[in-house]
Amino acid sequence: MAIPRDRVIARLRTVAEQTFNCPPDLIGEQTVAADVPGWDSLSHTIFIMNVEHEFGIEFDVATIQSFSCVSDMIDAIEKVAA
After folding, report:
1. Radius of gyration over every alpha carbon of the chain, rounded to an integer in angstroms
2. What residue ranges do the domains of the chain occupy?
3. Which fold has domain 5-81?
4. pTM, whole model, 2 decimals?
5. pLDDT, tens digit, 9 for 90 and up, residues 15-39
């Protein structure tokens, strides 16, 4: 059963808040790393690991490298978690 998109973004916001110590409403579908203070290469890796843990999934390297914004991550979560 697919996770509704609004539920995916809500869970991503929670993970981002915990990972980057940022307000959850800072995270939207068009958010990119440059929009979030402290989102650098190390915290990106931690964020990906936290997202994988939250959703019980594992992204392959090519998928991770294809993320250009949060929407791409949501699409991948929907695809893997379906």
Report:
1. 11
2. 5-81
3. 1.10.1200
4. 0.93
5. 999 999 999 999 999 999 999 999 9
